[in-house]
Amino acid sequence: MADTETKYDVKKIAAAIEKKQGLRAGAKRKTWFLTLNNPCEHIPECMGMQPEEVVDWANRHWCVNSKGELKKNRGSGCCYERGLAEHTDHIHIVLCAVNTGCTAETVVRAFPTADIEVAKGSVEDLCAYLAKTGAHADKEDTTVVEPCYLGEKIVSNPSAKKSDDDGGNLSRTEQHRKLVLDAIWKDGYTYEDILSDPELAVYASGMRKDMLIDAIAVRDKQLRTKKRDVRGVWLIGPDDSHNVLEAARAWLTERFGWDWGEYDFGRFVQSKLSEKSRAVLVYVSSITPMEDVSLSLNNLLTCNPIQFNRTYDDAFWANWETVVIVSSSEPVALVAGPFKESILHRVDPHHVGGWDGKKTLEHVSKFLDKEVDDPDDSLSWEQIANYFDAKSVVSIPASAIEANDGYIPLTWDGDAPTLGETGIEEATDGSLS
């Protein structure tokens, strides 16, 4: 839908939706419900597609960017149906912008020909409607393709949430306050998001602004994502890369147990990886297209938050800090494009000779032991400082504690001693004694 802006008056359509839904201009909602009739006729990209392909396209169109990566905070569910009376093919889509919400204009840009409305009801209600279960079971015969989901889990709009107390033990005012606080803590609303919601804005007007802003600040501090320190090691075995690959597998199993996996080039679903994977093994064949190698390695080595798909319906955030790459060719001959310099800068290449399996394992294990830190061995001072949001970390050797009758030495005001006192040093060089 690259020509959406030229074919449709997006702003005018969005304004009409906002008016119909009782929204202020530019108001955001976390979840939207769409119906699109005859998608293979109205969506050029879907012409000639089978129903299953249409559902997959709709989910990917909302959740996946041009690089094939899942967009952050996006989620969707889609089903394909055929009316019993008129036999009209149509799809229903539930779209989510999980943390920030999105405007009607954003949805119109993605699906300009759809009937768009704010999603109502709970998550269970929305999923039941797509699946034609529960109260909607009488329409199950209309289903052609059962609902498929992609990206983040579907959420409901805060105003549709019911009190966990069923309202029995909460006054009306307390229920309203709870809706606002749930929007902050559970749905990630900013203060501006609350004011743009016609219902929440009324409830928030009776609450202290500074209290709401403080709550948002505390939430953001708790949820702040720390960058990972991803280390890449590239093993080059020109004579027998198979032995090198087997040696790398053995070392990873010894170091990480089951908490590692192998990456498959050219596959959207990475079934061998999960959020528990602490390391990734990659085998780069000389026949793998350089563009695929470059894009995949850039995604695997990035320190920024990134999601991968374990199944078509389930995505996870990468948590690994070690990537071991094996090939028979030099890295410079296997990567290309805009990510080439970045990848070569982030990997440490090492040549492995043409030995037998046992000697290869010894050599590879010795090298990886040296290059890859054991995450269970110790924490760096940066990790400790980040975890506690501390400005500095002071290391106190055991001898200083022993010399003080087993107590941590402190100054008269309760602070740790300054540099040079009782053998205490401030960890500023990355080491921690």
Notes on the protein architecture:
The chain folds into 4 domains: 4-156, Replication Protein E1, Chain: A; 160-223, no CATH class; 231-371, 3-Layer(aba) Sandwich (Rossmann fold), CATH 3.40.50; 381-426, no CATH class. Mean pLDDT is 82; it is low at 160-168 and 419-433. Strands 6-2-4-3-7 form a 5-stranded antiparallel sheet, sandwiched between helices. A 5-stranded parallel sheet has the order 9-10-13-8-14, with helices on both faces. Strand 11 and strand 12 form a beta hairpin. It has 16 helices and 16 strands. The N and C termini lie far apart (58 Å). It is an alpha/beta fold. The longest helix has 16 residues, at 241-256.
Q: Strands, helices and their partners?
A:
Elements: H1 4-7, H2 10-21, E1 28-29, E2 31-37, H3 39-42, H4 51-63, E3 74-82, E4 89-97, E5 102-103, H5 104-110, E6 115-118, H6 123-131, E7 143-151, H7 172-185, H8 191-196, H9 198-204, H10 209-223, E8 231-236, H11 241-256, E9 260-262, E10 279-284, H12 290-301, E11 307-309, E12 315-317, E13 322-327, H13 340-346, E14 347-351, H14 357-371, H15 381-388, E15 394-395, H16 398-403, E16 425-426
Parallel strand pairs: 8-13, 8-14, 9-10, 10-13
Antiparallel strand pairs: 1-5, 2-4, 2-6, 3-4, 3-7, 11-12, 15-16
Helix pairs in contact: 2-5, 11-14, 12-13
Q: How many separate domains make up the residues?
A: 4
- Give the N-to-C terminal Cα separation: 58 Å
Query: Mind describing the biggest β-sheet?
Result: 5 strands, antiparallel
Q: Give the helix proportion (percent range).
A: 25-40%
Mean pLDDT level: 82
Which strand order do you get reading across the main beta sheet?
6-2-4-3-7
CATH class category of the largest domain: Alpha Beta
Our Rg estimate from Cα atoms comes to 27 Å
The chain-level structural class is alpha/beta
The name CATH uses for the topology of the largest domain is: Replication Protein E1, Chain: A
What ranges have pLDDT less than 50 throughout 5 or more consecutive residues? 160-168, 419-433
H/I helix tally: 16
